[in-house]
Amino acid sequence: MSKSNIWARKPVEAFEEDMRQSGLKRVLGKWGLTAIGIGAIIGAGIFVMTGVGAKEYAGPALALSFVAAGIGCTFAALCYAEFASFLPVEGSAYAYSYATMGEIFAWIIGWDLILEYAMGASAVAVGWSGYLGKFLLLFDIKLPLWLMSDSFSAQSFLRDAATSSEKMQSLISHYSSIAVPTIMGHPFAINLPAFLIIFVITAILVKGIKEAASANTLLVMLKLIVVLFIIIFGAGYIHPENWHPFIPKPEMIVNPGETVAHSAYGFWGILAGAGYIFFAYIGFDTVSTQAGEAKDPKKDVPFGIVVSLIVCTLLYIMVALVLTGMVNYKNIDITAPISAAFASIPGLKFAVFIISIAALAGLTSVLIVMLLGQSRVFFAMAKDGLLPKNFFGVLHPKFRTPYKASILTGLVVAFVSAFTPISVIAELVNIGTLLAFVLVCGAVWLMRIKEPDRSRPFRVKWLPVVATLGIVSNVLIMLSLSYINWIRLFVWLAIGFAVYFLYGRYHSRLNNPTKQG
Ligand code: ALA
After folding, report:
1. CA quadruple 117, 119, 123, 124: dihedral positive or negative?
2. Rounded to 5 degrees, what angle do the CA atoms 95, 99, 102 make?
3. Residue of 47, 66, 122, 124 to mutate, ligand 1, most atoms within 8 A of C-beta
4. What is the mean predicted confidence (pLDDT) over 141-145?
5. Which of 272, 411, 458, 467 could form a disulfide with 445 if both were Cys (CB 3.0 to 4.6 A apart)?
């Protein structure tokens, strides 16, 4: 068995060679890349998580949570942009850390990106299911609660409804039945739409996504128009009294499916809210995974990353203000808050229809990007020998897609989304992605020290300050998440270390150049 150097760095030139061999077509310009960024960013975060964000974390001050998370992301985005400008390769943060900090860090980031992409897709699928429910209601089609929700959330809805007859009435009106069956004494519920949508997307990805990719720009336009519609049209229905108090008195609250209380409202509530709705910003980094298809990656990828983030930050702050102005934060719906806010106003059925369709289409595009991103990261890791090449690196003989990796990912993601509350998945995704951001901020700085003379078409001014602020702000947001998320993150990383030390280090292409598979 060969011995490996876990700190070995993959040279930038080796990445460039891999890219040359990949034979991808360079078709994306700067606006195409920006559209990909916006397409990946706007999704469940704004359409779904704003509900819990306002109700259980920040109250009307949710807009400030968006400002705080936006600031942390901006520092990280600048660091991603500098990296992408001199290392325009598919593997994104995984590749950056391989080139700067060595194999063990690359592995950890790659492992961590599973949380961002695969688990992120699970959370989006749960959001998709919530909007499907609201959409079907428009046609008076109802399904039982136990087929539309995981059992933790179903029980939490029932507990919440038991507190007032009005809430109970509202719950009953949403489902054909609110009874939850039991299996061996345990309540059983499954989020069937979330489960099924993952199967459909997986099938599309196995077959190849050429058509889906060309539809992306159209979907992004639709999403942007609808978000603007929500802001402009919704502004007419704001009741300023809903903003008072803008920052409610601090409390401790427990989310559905969680047993641990977290800070709500007040300063810590705003910060914890930022940790929760951080999910809404995830996706700008996917622009960097498209570097292989960019016409002028060194300039256009940084542009796409930064512009897509700025556009979304501004839109998010406005949506948060409109939503908390339309509905009192205590009454915000947590499964499909925006369409529910419009549905609560008589005569706005057409708006609910438009928003639900756009949310379903928009969330579908996020699902495609995330599951695709996951298969690319697996593929890159398999190419480097850190995952079994004969599974994760195998292309379908006809469709030329990494079908085995896609199907395995689809199965795991479908099960997680069917049985886990969205808040639990989202917080795990957030802590994992925040860790990736922190490591990228550190890595870009380290690269400046190690290779100061390498050409950097996009150079962050005051990098030590920006990287430090990026690390501090993102760690601060991580700290605002309850300790249970830290435990989950450590368990996940411990499993990752075990896989690396039992497999990756003995099969790494960098450390074992003669070894195949
Ligand atoms: N930012 C993406 C979303 O909100 C992941 O769905």
Report:
1. positive
2. 100
3. 124
4. 94
5. 467
- Contact between 284 and 77 under an 8 Å Cβ cutoff? The reply is yes
Task: State the closest ligand 1 atom to the C-alpha of 124, by its place in the atom list counted from 1.
Answer: 6
Q: How far apart are CA 100 and CA 200, in angstroms?
A: 38
Output the residue whose Cα is nearest ligand 1's atom 3: 43
Based on the number of CB atoms within 10 Å of its own CB, is 240 exposed (0-12), middle (13-18) or buried (19 or more)? exposed
Residue range 178-209, pLDDT digits in tens: 989 999 888 899 999 999 999 999 998 888 76
Q: Which domains does the chain have, with CATH numbers?
A: 23-140+190-507 (1.20.1740.10)
Global pTM exceeds 0.70:
yes
Distance 282 CA to ligand 1 centre (A): 6
More confident residue, 430 or 253: 430
Gap from CA of 41 to ligand 1 centroid (Å): 5
Distance CA 265, CA 244 (A): 13
Report the interhelical angle of 349-383 vs 30-41 (nearest 10°): 110
Write down the pLDDT at residue 258. 64
- DSSP letters along 239-250, please? -GGGGSSSSPPP
Contact 367, 131 (CB under 8 A): no
Res 247 pLDDT > 50: yes
Closest Cα to atom 6 of ligand 1 = 43
d(CA 6, CA 276): 34
Tell me, in angstroms, the distance from the centre of ligand 1 to residue 293's CA: 22
Q: Is the pLDDT of residue 388 over 80?
A: yes
**pLDDT tens track for 473-494:** 999 999 988 888 999 999 999 9
> Which is the closest atom of ligand 1 to the Cα of 127?
6
